Amino acid sequence: MLIEGKFDVAVVNGVVPPRFTPRVAVNHGITLKAGKPYLYAVKQLYERYNKVICVSHRLGKEVRSILGVICEVVPLPTKLELYKPRSISEREDIVVYIGTRPVRNPHISIEAVRLLRRGGFTAKLIVIGASSEHSKDGSVEYRYGLRESEKNELLCEAKAPILPSSYEALPTRYFEGHG
Description:
Blueprint: E1 10-13, E2 23-27, H1 36-46, E3 51-54, H2 57-67, E4 72-73, E5 92-98, H3 106-118, E6 124-128, E7 140-143, H4 148-157, E8 158-161
Parallel strand pairs: 1-2, 2-3, 3-4, 5-6, 5-8, 6-7
């Protein structure tokens, strides 16, 4: 429980109406399909914050154009030195997908791996996240509660990552030179 006056700042991942100051909101993505009442409410909540942080320049532009809210951009850090990919011949026949939220379209990843298997490839999809009802055959394995180092290791031993999201606010530099 937070008690007013017992902390320096509140950083909120998302939007809630806190009653203390100073307040910083961190925006990881905006709901593009939301109706006008929802967007109006979000804008009103953001205006109650001392600062709004967006995790990419793209997201900052979207928040400014859709909500009329100016945010400071602090890109998500990607420590490439933590990734030591194996050579392609040493990698396993796995495809790694992280997250099971509906916006990330897990069903597309599952179907893509099924198509590969029907085409004669031995690919297996490893989903890092909570198990879902999307697949019960041997083409998909769910792993939950992994440490970051375990996620990194899986990504380095996989033939490919897959991310068929409808929306991601990842910084552009995340993909540059790492395809």
